[in-house]
Design a protein that fits this description.
heterodimer; A: 417 residues; mainly alpha; MetI-like fold; 3 domains; two-stranded antiparallel ribbon; 19 helices; B: 284 residues; 12 helices; 0% strand; globular
Chain lengths: 417, 284
């Protein structure tokens, strides 16, 4: 018999290969079943809702729901000339309903995003429409303001109709689609979002740099000190790590206020005069200082765990081979800590880019980040689809870094204290 | 860290500069927490050290803000504390159960798509809270669970499980699987093996994951801001409102209590970590 035909059989006569595969499969299913409950839970309560956000961000029903009759009657309108009487009539009834529900302000804000100039004419229409007579709404509405007789404005209303749109994403980048369907920038003085994106990146970047510069020496000290001292000092890193974020932010609010201790100290050493105290809160400085202190432990811990594994004899070897301590550090020690630097920097950057609480409390107007804008649209303007769009833009950025982190560090290597 | 005697002067100087920098960073890390402590005993209503406090005059100190925290009229802290503890305890139980079981599966070398699944399970820890908040709010609103304890507990389970998964898989990475095989060969069924052999060995990891889940839930404010109604207010929500509206010393009294709580949790977590390392035979 040739060796290929000679199969090893198990005691019950099944070929060993088949039997092994079966056992392997059984083990796979067993392992998967253990993970399944959590996976299912996360998918239902977390992954799907994020998908739902994606739907909301492109599905802008806000105006469509406010003007249902108008859009129905507009279906047959070609958009060349002024719409016929039915459209005006439908618009009038939709509008009356909005006034009853006190939602016409929302409509004017929404339409104003599409085309400037809606705000004032909607206000005027609201006032005049109280005395409207029945019938012939076209002429009555057109008489309110000359813009109501301008076909451009009716086209703008119609442009708001499509259910699926990427306009919210354009708006998040301070762009919009004009009447001709071109994508253009909004006027210079209204470009608020780009500033916010840039500021978010800037603050996250510098907070990461500051954290790195401060964490490197203390991680080194912790890793090289004898255990009994380093354990004590480690508490200085871990206590803030375990303390409530709000408590830590509160302590910065006390320290940085104008009559606060930091300012007292500056006055005492004569850096500033008493009536000329520095404003360190409700601006970028506040965000920088508080975020750096709060995120510092996330940099120290990965650096420490890498430095702990570097044998001190390597530095000694470097020095004995003729390097000065600085060269030994730069050529031997530093390159070995690069994995820790990568892990710490990516983690801090990811956390900083989505920070919300601290900037909201100590950042003021000039120190807030994109997260604060998302919260503002969720809570104040109730433009949930825009909040979703901005959230997903932020998320896509974070996922890229997350992917990078997973590639470089491995997600199961996150160190927690 | 004494320097050898033969160290040259400029390295000596450099060494002391390095130690000074380290001291400054440690000071920056820890000092802000200690500002809260004395100010919470302030007899006055302002959040600055009064002249009396600077002179250590006993009359300048009082417990009035602690009294206000506990007995104050219309005070929200009682309800908030109750809610916070209920939510955090249930969220911890949920996270620990789901997370530990999942970690057992993930540590098996037979687990298919390990990397991808791990990335999905850890994602709630990485994704900015504001995005999690918006997404979970949409879900809970649809499911009719907005402004309920159940909704908040479920949300906190989502946010807490990554910590349990990470700590328990880390503990299991040093786990000697021959002991479970030995148990099985001696006739123990899998459940029995888990309860009698595996669980006691990984318990430190499970508990420290549970502590992380507890702290995450107890301290979480962004998601709760979206989900909570008036009835579901928690300590972080009250602090957030207080810090935004007016910073009263009562908040500092609460903050002091929270620092004491976090110190207790830190000590527990540290003791557990050391015990776990001892059990797994990792000596440093």
């Amino acid at each position: 018999m040739s060796p290929e035909n000679k199969q090893i059989l198990t005691t019950d006569g099944v070929p060993l290969e088949v039997s092994l595969k079966k056992a392997e499969k059984k083990n796979k299913i067993k392992a998967f079943l253990l993970v399944a409950p959590l996976l299912l839970f996360i998918i239902i309560t977390y992954v799907f809702p994020i998908g739902d956000m994606l739907m909301r961000s492109v599905n802008d029903k806000m105006v469509t729901e406010m003007l249902p009759k108008t859009y129905k009657s507009m279906e047959t309108w070609d958009g060349e000339e002024l719409p016929p009487e039915e459209v005006f009539e439908a618009f009038y009834f939709d509008f009356q309903k909005l006034i009853e529900e006190e939602r016409e302000g929302k409509l004017s804000t929404q339409l104003n995003y599409t085309k400037n100039g809606f705000k004032s004419i909607i206000k005027k229409l609201r006032r005049k429409s109280k005395s409207f007579e029945e019938g012939n709404y076209k002429e009555q509405i057109m008489a309110v303001h000359k813009r109501w007789a301008d076909v451009e404005y009716w086209r703008a209303i119609k442009r708001r109709a499509p259910a699926y749109t990427y306009q919210k994403y354009l708006k998040g980048m301070d762009m919009y689609e004009n009447e001709k369907g071109e994508i253009v920038n909004v006027a210079e003085d209204r470009r608020v979002h780009r500033i916010l994106w840039l500021r978010t990146l800037e603050i996250a970047f510098f907070v990461t740099v500051f954290c790195f510069l401060m964490a490197y020496p203390i991680a080194h000290l912790l890793a090289t000190l004898p255990m009994k001292y380093s354990n004590l000092l480690m508490i200085c890193v871990l206590l803030p790590f375990w303390t409530s974020l709000l408590v830590r932010t509160a302590s910065w609010m006390i320290l940085l206020q104008q009559q606060g201790i930091v300012n007292d100290f500056f006055v005492m050493i004569g850096l500033v005069s008493d009536d000329n105290r520095i404003e360190m809160m409700f601006n970028k400085t506040g965000s920088y200082v508080a975020m750096t202190q709060i995120l510092l432990p996330f940099m120290v811990l990965p650096l420490y765990s890498v430095m702990k594994t570097i044998s001190p004899s390597l530095m000694r070897a470097g020095k004995s081979l003729g390097g000065t301590p600085f060269i030994a550090f730069w050529k031997v020690y530093f390159p070995l800590t690069i994995p820790g630097i990568g892990a710490g920097c990516l983690l801090v950057f990811i956390l900083a880019i989505g920070y919300y609480i601290t900037p909201a409390l100590v950042g003021g107007a000039s120190g807030t980040l994109i997260s604060n804008q998302i919260a503002f649209h969720m809570k104040s303007t109730l433009d949930w689809s825009f909040a979703s769009a901005m959230g997903l833009m932020l998320l896509s950025g974070v996922l890229v870094i997350y992917w990078l982190y997973n590639k470089l560090v491995g997600i199961d290597n996150i160190k927690l204290g | 860290m004494a320097l050898p005697k033969y160290t040259e002067t400029h390295y000596r100087i450099w060494h002391y500069i390095y130690l000074t920098i380290c001291a400054a960073v440690f000071f920056f890390l820890i000092a802000p927490l200690f500002v809260i402590f004395p100010l919470s005993f302030n007899a006055e209503e302002f959040l600055v050290f009064s002249d009396g406090m600077k002179r250590l005059d006993p009359d300048a100190f009082s417990l009035r803000w602690y009294q206000d925290m506990i007995y104050g009229t219309k005070n929200p802290w009682g309800l908030a504390a109750k809610n916070s503890f209920i939510i955090a305890i249930f969220a911890t139980i949920g996270s620990v159960l789901l997370g530990t079981v999942a970690a057992l599966g993930l540590s098996s070398r037979h687990m298919p798509y390990k990397g991808l699944i791990m990335a999905v399970l850890i994602s709630p820890m990485i994704v900015p809270l504001i995005i999690s908040g918006v997404a979970i709010f949409f879900f809970m609103a649809k499911a009719g669970l907005a402004a309920t304890h159940t909704g908040i507990v479920l949300a906190h389970i989502v946010l807490g499980t990554p910590f349990v998964v990470i700590t328990v898989t880390a503990t299991l990475s040093g786990f000697d699987h021959s002991v479970t095989r030995a148990a099985a060969s001696l006739g123990s069924n899998p459940v029995n093996t888990f309860m009698k052999i595996t669980l006691p060995l990984i318990l430190p990891g499970v508990i420290s994951g549970g502590l992380f889940a507890f702290v995450t839930s107890f301290d979480e404010v962004v998601v709760v801001l979206f989900l909570a109604g008036l009835e579901n207010t928690t300590i972080p929500i009250q602090m957030w409102t207080g810090l935004r509206e007016q910073l009263s010393p009562t908040i500092l009294a609460v903050a002091t209590c929270l620092i004491v709580l976090s110190t207790l949790i830190l000590v527990t977590a540290e003791l557990l970590r050391r015990r776990s390392e001892r059990l797994r035979g990792i000596n440093q």
